[in-house]
Amino acid sequence: MSNDERTFVMVKPDGVQRGLIGEITSRFEHRGLKLVGAKAIQLDRELAEEHYAEHEGKPFFEGLVDFITSAPVFAMVWEGKDATHQVRRMVGETDPAESPPGTIRGDYGLDLGRNLIHASDHEDPGSNEREIELFFDDDELLDYEQVTAEWQYE
Ligand code: IDP
Questions:
Q1: Is the ipTM of this structure higher than 0.90?
Q2: Which of 12, 33, 92, 99 could cysteine-pair with 78, CB 3.0–4.6 Å?
């Protein structure tokens, strides 16, 4: 398994408004993942609808697009061993009420429609790369050595 898998993560408007960007980001830093891209952006409906295209037609779709475009989000790309799967484990279940304490949604959320964070789905192969491409240009992503790598990987 390579140590350079990249995954897409986004603090949603509720996380940004509640001042949780730092709390959430520090979890990925402390885990040893490498930050290779980050930006605060305001999503427009076109990008939001494309990002959530798989949910089009579902009863919550319009509300989800309204919510995700209602205020800025903080988009990131994290890199590391098994990054997509490991980040999803740290995020928890889709519904914060079902997410165990210790996960981001389980520690900071209570309601399905305000679950703080998006992360690429490890059960949907290629979703990480598709989402990174949708949100970031190539020249917004960094390529650098993490000086702690030899203390994190055998
Ligand atoms: P995920 O964010 O855990 O990957 P998905 O099933 O891909 O979950 O759903 C995308 C987002 O849509 C969820 O994070 C949540 O914000 C919203 N969502 C999903 N299911 C419902 C629902 O039944 N009611 C309201 N919002 C929902």
A1: yes
A2: 33
Q: In the chain, what percentage of residues exceed pLDDT 90?
A: 99
Instruction: Judge whether 74 is annotated as a binding position.
Output: no
Ligand 1 center to 77 CA (angstroms): 20
Q: What is the pTM of this model?
A: 0.98
Is 58 annotated to bind ligand? Answer: no
**Which long-range contacts does 128-134 make (Cβ < 8 Å, 24+ apart)?**
128/5, 128/6, 128/7, 128/8, 128/83, 128/84, 129/6, 131/8, 131/51, 132/6, 132/7, 132/8, 132/37, 132/77, 134/47, 134/50, 134/51
Annotated binding residue 28: no
Q: Catalytic pick from 30, 51, 85, 118?
A: 118
Predicted confidence (pLDDT) at residue 83 exceeds the cutoff of 80: yes
11 to each of 73, 104, 151, how far by Cα in Å? 6, 11, 28
Smallest CA separation from ligand 1 atom 1, residue:
94
How far does the centroid of ligand 1 lie from the alpha carbon of residue 124, in Å?
A: 15
Domains by residue range for the chain, with CATH:
4-144 (3.30.70.141)
